[in-house]
Design brief:
Blueprint lengths: L16 E3 L2 E3 L6 E5 L6 E6 L3 H18 L4 H17 L1 H12 L3 H18 L2 H4 L4 E6 L2 E9 L2 E5 L7 H12 L3 E5 L6 H13 L6 E3 L4 H9 L3 E7 L2 H13 L3 E5 L4 E5 L5 H13 L9 E7 L6 H9 L19 H16 L3 E4 L18 E4 L6 H4 L6 E7 L2 H10 L2 E2 L2 E4 L3 H10 L5 E3 L15 E2 L2 E2 L6 H7 L1 E9 L17
Parallel strand pairs: 7-8, 7-10, 8-9, 10-11, 12-13, 12-18, 13-16, 15-16, 18-19
Antiparallel strand pairs: 1-2, 3-4, 5-6, 6-22, 11-21, 14-15, 17-20
């Protein structure tokens, strides 16, 4: 289903669940509209599944696991090879859908897909990623080795801000490890996720191995408590992520929760001024600031505070508009509720005494009078007790703080409860090394504002940004989606009776 299919004058389509390989109409009593954030046009209606529908999806996944877990690794990764080729062939179409339902610019929507595609490509290496270990003759004629085996039915709960990348972080790695999967996309923008799932089926994912359920809290809670769900991956807000982690953990499941953030960029006076300003503004205002890895705080050290006027003037040049309009830099936020929340935080920042250097509240976009637009907004003289600093704004708002030394900057960042990502801009190797060593944040960028690692590594957010000890994708997620079985074996030749050994020794 594409956004174009819901054009004006036609019946609004409904989004279907995927259960056991078939797209089925929901029996839900509650539905919500999927709305284009630039126009308020209703693209489709999505059901809020009840526990019975969630149970049907889990049952399909549980039944499929019996055969999928024994499917050879080569057969699994050949499906991933075909899947990645299909994604590449359909990037333009999926990006158009994603832009229409989420608001991102078309180039950013393509980037969303491509970063997820990288994980699919890495999944094609499962033959080496899922290797066990072997030690010969650990005692007299005794060998020990480990097996990495799938754990069963896994579930994924994904947010609105990356409807392509984050689902692709989850289900490809889970199923290529031999598990089956139930995916619950964001109810705000599931259309592009559905298009990716359709391609996965086309690539050869068998019925029941991948299922999709749409919904809100009832569906989330049903997944968290279902006895056949063994692991849950979550990306989203801190409030929901904490709830998911606690509820699912109480019911004996593995959980990884990637949650909120307040990412800082420390700017040293010796940094390349032009490149640093460009990087900061791109990281603060790209995707309208709706990234858990957005740079929402700039910590200006020493004379770099003199760059503020240039930062504001550069921010004024960014074009705000519909994500599907060529040349646009900043699209709309995802909903009217999201816009209202961002505007209330900007107002709170003013009332609490921050200096509003650039106000994006009254931006107007020709031809889109009803869009959820907010222009780039910049605050100075921000204190750490202000709500624009303590809260994750999730909008195109950059707050700036000023300190005199690198040590003060490190202390400021480390005092913040979140630990998703941070960066430093400098031309000094010694400064960069000191920063990476002393900073207490899980992902560090050096002259890189959004330090999301490539899939050969793992996403390693920390502290208040993460619950669970294993991150999504990379080597860590193979550990998350598999269980280690250790085998100790001995094979006997014909030999004389050595008697009964009642000790724990392996002699």
């Amino acid at each position: 289903m594409t956004a174009a299919s819901a054009s004006a004058g036609k019946a609004v389509p409904t989004v279907k669940h995927l259960i056991n390989g078939a797209w089925v109409e929901s029996r839900a009593s509650e539905w919500r509209d999927i709305v284009n954030p630039a126009t308020q046009a209703v693209l489709a209606r999505v059901p809020l599944a009840n526990a019975d529908e969630v149970g049907a999806a889990v049952a399909a996944a549980q039944a499929a696991f019996a055969t999928w877990k024994t499917t050879p690794i080569g057969a699994r990764y050949r499906i991933m090879l075909k899947f990645q080729a299909l994604i590449r062939a359909n990037i333009g179409r999926i990006a158009a859908t994603l832009s229409a339902e989420q608001g991102k610019t078309l180039p950013d929507a393509e980037g969303d897909i491509i970063r997820g595609l990288e994980v699919v490509e890495h999944a094609c290496s499962i033959g080496t990623l899922q290797l066990g270990e072997f030690a010969e003759n650990v005692a007299g004629g005794v060998d020990t080795y480990t097996l990495r085996q799938p754990i069963g039915v896994c579930a994924g709960i994904t947010p609105f801000n990356f409807p392509a990348m984050i689902p692709l972080w989850m289900f490809p790695m889970a199923i290529v490890c031999g598990n089956t999967f139930v995916l619950k996309p964001s109810e705000q923008d599931p259309l592009s996720t559905v298009e990716l799932v359709e391609l996965a089926l086309e690539a050869g994912v068998p019925p029941g191995v991948l299922n999709v359920i749409h919904g809100g809290r009832e569906a989330v809670d049903a997944l968290c408590v279902h006895p056949d769900v063994k692991a849950i991956s979550f990306v989203g807000s801190t409030a929901v992520g904490t709830h998911v982690y606690r509820l699912a953990s109480e019911h004996g499941k593995r959980v990884q929760s990637m949650m909120g953030a307040k990412n800082h960029a420390v700017v040293m006076p010796d940094a390349n001024r032009t490149q640093t300003i460009n990087a900061l503004l791109g990281a603060a205002f790209g995707a309208a600031g709706q990234r858990c890895m957005a740079t929402s705080v700039a910590v200006l050290v020493g004379k770099s505070r003199e760059w503020l006027p240039a930062m504001v003037e550069k921010a004024k040049t960014l074009k705000v508009g519909s994500g599907q309009t060529p040349g646009v830099d900043v699209g709309p936020v995802v909903s009217r509720a999201a816009k209202a929340r961002v505007l209330s935080l900007i107002e709170a920042g003013e009332k609490q005494g921050a200096e509003l250097l650039l106000d994006g509240r009254d931006v107007k976009v020709d031809g889109f009078p009803d869009g959820n637009f907010i222009g780039p907004t910049v605050f100075a003289k921000v204190r750490t007790d202000m709500s624009i600093y303590t809260d994750e704004i999730f909008g195109p708002v950059l707050v700036t703080l000023e300190v005199d030394t690198l040590d003060e900057a490190i202390a400021l960042v480390n005092a913040n409860p979140f630990g998703n990502g941070t960066g430093i801009f400098t031309q000094s190797g010694a400064v960069a090394r000191k920063f990476q060593s002393e900073i207490d944040v899980g992902q560090v960028g050096i002259n890189i504002p959004i330090p999301v690692p490539v899939p050969y590594f793992s996403f390693t957010g920390s502290r208040g940004s993460k619950l669970g000890d294993l991150g999504p994708y990379g080597k860590q997620v193979v550990q998350f989606y598999t269980q280690t079985k250790t085998v100790t074996s001995r094979w006997f030749d014909d030999e004389p009776d050595t008697g009964v050994n009642t000790t724990i020794s392996l002699k």
